């Protein structure tokens, strides 16, 4: 276990914890903005009930995302100082712009969104809620720009000391893969949130399917799956074509193509990659379908990893299977959305308990898909940190393996305690039915069929 490998494990561990919270908060912030706008436009108390329920969950998830992000960023200076020195002139300003624009925007309006409705009025409160949602999207924009530049670097020159010097900021920010990655990630965040909301709704429908807030949030989540899942599949296809153009070795690893196929490449569904031997063992595939997907022609030639030097190939086993996990979950999302359409048509959206159980099972699937997608992206970029220009082996700090290993163990222990407790608290909050007052009872929410105290009051004069 070298210092480089341990540093990579540490960054992978911290970024895996971090990314699940922004993926959730990006979608949830937009969901809150929609709920608030619907309540203001219709006066329907159900939307306000859902807003007040999910805003508390958002606050906890947002805080956990901020904390985990700060810890992750410190590793650039501790474990990856060479990368920070050489890529800092490009990466540093982009990350600073994220703080100066997105984070300040989110933090500045978050308190108003959470606590300020009675103090600032509905109009300004709606504006603050929208600003928080926009801030999360701007944050994703800057971070995806940084990551995309590392994948498809552009707009720079290299100095005599090996530093990446910015030459064209437009080319740096809007590098070739950035639009595809941004769309793919934002849609993934929306789907992740829809699955969490839908899974929570399915859980409460099994307990009491007469609560109007539960019915509404389940219905909205299923509509999101129906609309966004097909868009995500289309966006993923376009992202794959872009990756084939700029990072062909990654696509070869994703597809399991060790050999070139001059007259049409098969789409391998399963197999066990043997990178040392250069073969995909026990392969199960569909002839020529990969060429049709990637080149839109059955007989289009596709090159394999045999055209890439061994030292420049990514770890095929990891990339091959993480890609398939992501794809499988994506089609499962589409399947759940189509199932909900059938349930609507039959008038059983709120009574079909088998579908509600499926929604519960799919609740965490969005997080798994996001992690699988990021593993595919980041491991597929290896052995480079800046693709084609700076190798990972040249990027890490001159630390001893024991020092990196000790900090990795400390991270694992602290993260499981802190974020384990935070995640448990989030699940406890989701366990409570929307609109049910918290009376300190430990045996679950009161069955009130969605009726809450004070419901006859003017909803515009009530916070909860």
Overview of this protein structure:
About 70% of the residues lie in helices and about 5% in strands. The chain has a domain at about 175-390. The strands form three sheets. A two-stranded antiparallel ribbon has the order 1-2. The termini are far apart. The protein is globular, with a radius of gyration of 24 Å. The protein is built from 13 helices and six strands. It is mainly alpha-helical and about 475 residues long. The chain has helices at about 5-40, 45-80, 80-115, 115-150, 170-175, 180-205, 210-245, 250-255, 290-295, 315-345, 355-360, 365-380, 400-430; strands spanning about 155-160, 165, 265-275, 280-285, 385, 390.
Features of this protein?
464 residues; mainly alpha; 69% helix; 6% strand; globular
> In whole angstroms, how far apart are the ends?
54 Å
Residue share in β-strands: 5-15%
Largest sheet: 2 strands, antiparallel
Helical proportion, percent range: 55-70%
**Which descriptor suits the 3D outline?**
globular
Low-confidence stretches: 438-464
Using only CA atoms, what is the Rg?
A: 24 Å
Beta-strand segment tally: 6
Question: How does the helix and strand content classify structurally?
Answer: mainly alpha
- Reading the helices and strands in chain order gives HHHHEEHHHHEEHHHHEEH
The mean pLDDT is 86
> Strands across the major sheet, in which order?
1-2
Number of discrete helical segments: 13
